Amino acid sequence: MASSGKNPILSSAPLQVLLYLNSWYFATFFIAECLMFIYKGVTLPYPSQNLILDVVLLFLYLGLEILRLFYGWKGNLCERGLAMSVSVGVLVPCTVLSVYYLLLQTFVLRLEFILNAILLCFYGLELILGIMCMTTFSRSSVY
Q: Best exposed site among 30, 43, 115, 136 by fewest CB in 10 Å?
């Protein structure tokens, strides 16, 4: 941690704010997605195998997103390049799952399209800021 006056603070405030907002947004996204699956299961002719697959992938997505946000949060605040690289690495499967829910489901509602597009914007900004933080952390002296 850069706590004394001689060491500059390297952690990124915009990335931290973005991670904080994304944690709340993903919680809302998860609840909305669960409610939309209930709606689609009741009103649409959704094949049961596809519905089960989509729900299992949603819970996998939840676990990956929690892991990604935790490592991004701690990596940024503690100025650790390895934790930030884990966060950016887990961003790849999270992006793939978001694209799956955006385009490849059996039925995609307009609300799902909008929510996933916003989530992909969060991911793009976090990728840029995360890479900038990793390079900043790796260039600093560790002594």
A: 43
Whole-angstrom distance, CA of residue 105 vs CA of residue 116: 12
What stretches in the chain show pLDDT beneath 50?
Answer: 1-2
CA 57, CA 23: separation in Å to the nearest integer?
18
Q: What is the pTM of this model?
A: 0.89
Residue with token string 């995360």 = 130
Q: List for the chain the helix, strand, coil content (%; round to 5).
A: 80, 0, 20
Q: How far apart are CA 45 and CA 109, in angstroms?
A: 14
Distances (CA, A) of 98 to 29, 58, 93, 121: 11, 10, 9, 11
Q: Which residue has the tokens 């990956």?
A: 64
